[in-house]
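SAMPLE LOG
Freezer: B-3
Tube label: C17
Construct: single chain, 578 aa
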Amino acid sequence: MDQQINLCDTQGTTISDYSDRIQQLTECVSNLYSKYVNDPYMKEATYNYICNRLPSIMENIAKTHNERVQRLEELTVEQDFFINYFLSNTRYFYLPATESFFYYDGDRYKQYSEDDVLFNVLSSISRDQHLMSWKHKTKVSVMKRIKENHLYNSIPESVTIQRVLSILYPAIFDTKTEAKYFLTVLGDNIFRRELSGQVVHIVPIIFKNLLNHLNAMCQVWFGTNLSQSFKYKYHVEHNYNNIRIINSSSSIYINDKVWINKVLSENGLDLLCVACHYSNRYLNSDNYAIKYSNDDSFFRSVFHLKDITPETLVTIFINEYLRVIPNNAKITAGTNTIVGEVSFKSSSISWKNMMYLWKHFLEGRKLPNVVISSKLKQELIGVLGAYYKEDEDMFFGINSKYLPSVCKFIQFWDDTMEYDETEIELEVGEISSLFKKWCESRNEVIFNMNDKQIMDLISYYYPDVEIDQDKFVYKVRCSLWNKQMDILMAIDNLKEKYNIMSENTMRISKSNSSLSLCSQDTHSSFFTNMNISMYDAYAHYCDYMNQLEIGRRQIEADRRQTAPLLASKQYFEKFVSL
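STRUCTURE (predicted):
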């Protein structure tokens, strides 16, 4: 009896409950027996059932129950093992916003339909014979676990991260640090993280196609935007303290829509998932730049405007780019006695040139235009008002070390360049060479200007000129070099070698010195008929122009080892095919 009481106690039944149940059982049996006390058959049957059959029935019930409990425990263990094994070997993720399933194979993320996921789950369960009786229940449990596995919390493998970084660097960014920062900003926008204040990330306009493409993908897959913090230019309502600067590399890839579309169609989902991972890992983009970038140059670039004002920036510009030139200066001896006076050439800067210097200053610091024109003018006049004449819109007695080359290039362009419908193109490298040649011909200082400076000058001072890929200028001819004439002379020389030089192959118009072909046959057809490859024809052109240059130097007794101006092979092929 003590053992029974203890057993009852371990199952949560008190001694009082036990006594009550014994009393209830005793009363039940007593009442049952008393009910049939006058019926010998039922009285005997009651006695036999309770004393002989009921103990074995109870033993069978207990045995069946124990077996069921054991089977349930075994299935539960088997189910837990299966679910854990399945989820660890098949990494499925779920996104409630779009009710979408995703699969990660350790290399790439892919979107899966719910039917595909169910098929894989049920197929895997069917291969485990022990769970067939629990197939539906296991399926429900697996799908529940998958839906708890949020895509935003996935951790991509290193191979995925490095592939995404290799897309952005060096094609779009100059360093991996900049690429990581950009990805973290994307992740912050996806999560709609609120940084201190309304942080604005100003990016070059060339990012527009990239961000639009990524944003469209993010809306489809994640049901959210990722471009809300990006701005392409400064607005007056932007607080400098909340502005972050993102710059791109000088690569042409970010402008290549075909390349961007191809890369993002193959890696867009991977890029977005890595962006989410970085935002989770570093908490936010500011935290990454401050604590994890380990790059002082990058840090200064991103937070360039954080602790300065527009007035401070204009002051830095004045100190670095402008200088006051007096009209004259007195010459003194050692005893401070004035012994003479020297006059300086008057100098001035027009407002248009001042704006170009400001543009040059911002580009040198890789900054967008963060001071509007009216504000800039107000600040400059506030400091240099004594030198400004409003009626002429010029600053007198002010000069800049950057202006001489600018003014010289403008003079070169105005003197030598003219619109010509027949001219195919000029390359920026050719313009640079012609500028140097022009300076030499005038015995003036030769200014070295890189391709970007030249294209910036042309686009700023001559906005009507057609420019392509920051390399080609269309329908503009230089009076210092007639590319088409050089090519025609070389082709005629080649024809002479084959003794088929046609009379009147070309005619030079006296009115505009432009070339027009009189022959109905194209030069390319001549090359084809004579079995001359385009490569050989171009090689002959180069050799011919080199020989002419050698002859010119001998005639003029010019000892300088100067190379002739040569049209590119691309231009040569275009021209002879006309």
